[in-house]
Amino acid sequence: MGYAEFYRRSIEQPDEFWAEQGRLIEWQTPPQRVCDDSHPPFTRWFVGGTTNLCHNAVDRHLKDRAEQPALIWVSTETDRERVYSFRELHQEVQRTAAMLQALGVGKGDRVLIYMPMIPEAAFAMLACARIGAIHSVVFGGFASVSLASRIEDAEPRVIVSADGGSRAGKVIAYKPLLDEAIRLSSHKPQAVLLADRQLAPMERVAGRDHDWAPLRDKHLDAQVACEWLQSTDISYTIYTSGTTGRPKGVQRDVGGYAVALAASMQHIFQGRAGETYFSTSDIGWVVGHSYIVYGPLIAGMATIMYEGLPIRPDAGIWWKLVEKYKVTVMFSAPTAVRVLKKQDPAFLKKYDLSSLRGLFLAGEPLDEPTARWISDGLGVPIIDNYWQTESGWPILTIAGGVERKPAKFGSPGVPMYGYKVKILHESTGEELTRPNEKGVVVIEGPTPPGFMQTVWRDDERFVRTYWQSIPGKQVYSTFDWGIRDADGYFYILGRTDDVINVAGHRLGTREIEESISSHPGVAEVAVVGVADPMKGQVAMAFAIPKDSSVITDAAAALKLEGDVMKLVDQQLGAVARPSRVRFVSLLPKTRSGKLLRRAIQAVCEGRDPGDLTTIEDPSALQQIKDLIKQ
Ligand code: ATP
Ligand code: MG
Question: What pLDDT does 163 receive?
């Protein structure tokens, strides 16, 4: 069966299609109804079925592959490596589950996990899934204020954390940040469970704080059975990246998510039991949930959990791991590839990558020069895939497991099975069906399994934010612009709030960025629209030059600025030409590596940049502020 037929079945006979996918996981009670969409947009999947994510990720494999590696932990920060078999993982998860229970955690309670990339973080997630507690993992790179707002929102009974993490060899003490966050939050956890890595000194609050190791010793022989949960029960909440504003607490179910991941492992990633999957993301992001922890394990694969940078000890470290663990499927982000691009390309050729069948990239637009660079360097297929925290798994890509469609650079691909993706006119709501017409990318309900159930404790925000943004249509808005070409391939042109309106011409920031980054002197660029009394808006570009001396050499900067403008004129036309191209050493990004265009725009317009709790390095925004003042 070709992909077109596979997709058609998923849309025209969804019950039959998803019932079949549902058999990829194990149920305690089989579902009575595949899809209940009687209260849109609150779609419920596999109603009446009971199952457990931890059972499917761990226990289920004990029969056939108990001694096979399940979790491979590599830390280049602390120079440690440890492999847990499925049997060992099962044991650690049961111990952790027993510890959480001893601290008072039961079904439906929230457990907030604020941890570096260490095995205990995965044990905690799986232990929550096992006993039916709802985990809420907060990225370990966040400081107290961001953490406090998430503690307040999730109201966890227990927080699991550690003394510290390490980044580029520098220790980051987590515990003082956590203590401060708890102090700031009106909600107080009953207990805090702490893994002591002996990286940073750690003060304990008597009666509240518990050390992992001694508590684990009390539960060495723990046997904690999986709690059979309703398919529609809540498995976890996770916050969006906060690129466009206040992060949203995405709530996910149990059964639909398990099925969605199992299906994606087969039809998209083509990972087989016994092989090794390597996702370079962090457990604090959705990719870490779906494709470091749950997805690969559900598929019976070993998963690599990596603590460290892509360029330490050198830029070959990831490929060294691919060779050592015979990785077959790899997942990373364009931002990471851009980091590697600044290094010697010889590293891409140094190791035996013959096991690797594909490198999946997601999170931001994958520009063509970056895609070509990594594709030529590695000699493996590069598979762009587009999705969101909200969806939990890819919305657009090329489904290699069914039929490997040819990739087109610049396009993540076609709608995945189960997703009715459309392009609508943003103000009339009219569907745009002709090739290359630009509109908002939306998803028509019912949304497929794995998709968010609602915004945690805020059904109204879920409906209002996502389902009522297009006049007269109840569709889910991705808040991304896109077009579809004559072959049905989608192109994501940027966020709906990233459009520039120059004298009535609507331009996507991404188009201008692509054009500018095709100049050989430019390493990376951000384009924003800035209010202009004459034209409404003008485009303003901030670029990182390949040659950093350009930043301080006024004459060289002026020359490069002129060349870049000429290039945009040629490629897109004078209307798209930025009013200025300024050079900086760093661009403001979120912790997950996404450009914070809204913050740049606000600074350029002299406004308050708003919620900056997710920014990676505030000095990047300061550089822009200083430039604007000149
Ligand atoms: P917030 O919703 O809080 O503003 P965010 O949208 O950055 O943050 P995520 O869910 O992490 O949070 O990111 C999803 C977004 O990332 C998509 O809506 C899209 O804008 C972008 N994106 C993800 N993958 C791709 C891709 N392959 N190509 C283009 N854009 C992508
Ligand atoms: Mg978003």
Answer: 98
Q: Which of 138, 139, 238, 240 to mutate to test the pocket of ligand 1 (most atoms within 8 A of CB)?
A: 240
Decide if domain 503-629 falls under CATH 3.30.300.30. Answer: yes
Task: Report which bound ligand comes closest to the CA of 388.
Answer: 1
Encoded tokens for 127: 């232990």
Q: Which of 150, 374, 388, 421 to mutate to test the pocket of ligand 1 (most atoms within 8 A of CB)?
A: 388
Return the ligand 1 atom nearest residue 286 CA: 11
- Predicted complex ipTM: 0.99
> Per this entry, what is the length of the chain?
630
Query: What is the CA(389)–ligand 2 centre distance, in A?
Result: 7
Selecting from 3.40.50.12780, 1.10.455.10, 3.30.450.40, 3.40.50.1400, what CATH number does the domain 3-308+385-477 have? 3.40.50.12780
Mean pLDDT of 476-482: 95
Angle at 54 between CA 392 and CA 443, to 5 degrees: 15
For the chain, how are helix, strand and coil distributed in percent, rounded to 5?
Answer: 35, 25, 40
Predicted confidence (pLDDT) per residue in 532-584, tens digit: 888 888 999 999 999 999 999 999 999 999 999 999 998 888 888 999 999 99
Domain boundaries, the chain: 3-308+385-477, 503-629
**Alpha helix positions (H), 23-167:** 53-57, 62-65, 86-102, 119-131, 144-154
pTM of the model: 0.91
Q: What is the pLDDT of residue 357?
A: 96
Nearest CA to ligand 1 atom 19: 364
Whether the pLDDT of residue 449 is over 80: the answer is yes
**Ligand 1 centroid to residue 265 C-alpha, Å:** 21
Which atom number of ligand 1 is nearest to the Cα of residue 246? 3
Q: Which residues surround ligand 2, an ion (CB under 5 A)?
A: 240
Cα(561) to ligand 1 centroid in Å equals 29
Ligand 1 is surrounded, with C-beta below 6 A, by 240-245, 247, 362-366, 384-389, 412, 478, 480, 492, 495, 592, 594
What pLDDT sits at residue 186? 96
Angle, in degrees to the nearest 10, between helices 509-517 and 554-571: 120
Q: 87: which DSSP letter?
A: H
pLDDT bucket at 444, cuts 50 / 70 / 90? very high
Average of per-residue pLDDT across 147-170: 95
DSSP string, 275-295: SEEEE-S-TTSHHHIIIIIIH
